[in-house]
Amino acid sequence: MVRVPSRPGKADIDPLLGEHDHLVVAGTDADLAAVALRLLRKEQLTGVSLGFVPSSPDSDVARIWSLPTQPLRALALALRGEVDPVPLIRDDTGGVLVGRGVVGMVRGVAYCDEHTVLRGPARSIEVEPDASGPGLMVRVTKGTLFKRPSTQYARAFQLGCIPTRPSSDGVVHPRAMSRWTWYRHTEDLRLVRGLV
Questions:
Q1: Strand order across the beta sheet in which 83-86 lies
Q2: C-alpha dihedral, 138 to 142 to 148 to 151, nearest 10°
Q3: What would you measure as the largest C-alpha separation in the chain, in angstroms?
Q4: 81: alpha, beta or left, given left = phi > 0 and alpha = psi -120 to 50?
Q5: Residue spans of beta strands (DSSP E) within 33-144
Q6: Over the stretch 45-60, which tens digit does the pLDDT of each residue have?
Q7: SUPFAM superfamilies, per this entry (predicted)?
Q8: What SS3 state is found at 132?
Q9: Which residues of the chain are in CATH 2.60.200.30 domains?
């Protein structure tokens, strides 16, 4: 076992990639995203599987992919479970999304593939990977608390807006952006989530 810091970077992960074809990440959704990003950049997505032991029962990755959040069960699955490829979501600033992306209180125009899903204000936009469709689930909540959100499934989501700061896997982007895109990568993430 090798300990690396929270949200590990190039120097922490790259030396491990040549030695191992299975990694287990114990931490937050952002920690898993950091490791997935290194696999993407080193072109190792097809050769390395990832097990995940969430540090919080509120993990969006665990919820989306039905992973256990109890530490011992999660570790047993992460070590001995079967690999199940799941969509890896990228953004146009070089990052990845493995759980939930959020844009809150926004005004602009947004598209899911070629379909307009927003023209004007929204209370929130949420994006998650989804294996049952083309790759992304997008939920747009407009107006009041009583208005139902609309949900779309697409390969890509694009937003042009008054500058806002999106968050990916709980990490807020460091600067306000007037354009933002999340899209399905051509290769899947080899996530361990099958039966033990």
A1: 22-27, 49-54, 189-192, 83-86
A2: -10
A3: 53
A4: beta
A5: 49-54, 83-86, 89-91, 96-97, 101-112, 115-129, 136-141
A6: 999 999 999 999 999 9
A7: NAD kinase/diacylglycerol kinase-like
A8: coil
A9: 96-186
**Please, are residues 175 and 167 in contact by the beta-carbon 8 Å criterion?**
no
The token duo for 11 is 């120097």
Tell me how far apart the terminal alpha carbons of the chain are, to the nearest angstrom.
Answer: 20
CA 179 centroid distance within chain: 18
Rounded CA gap, 53 and 172, in Å? 22
Joined tokens for residue 24: 């287990």
**2.60.200.30, 3.40.50.300, 3.30.70.20, 3.55.10.10: CATH of 96-186:** 2.60.200.30
Prediction pTM value: 0.92
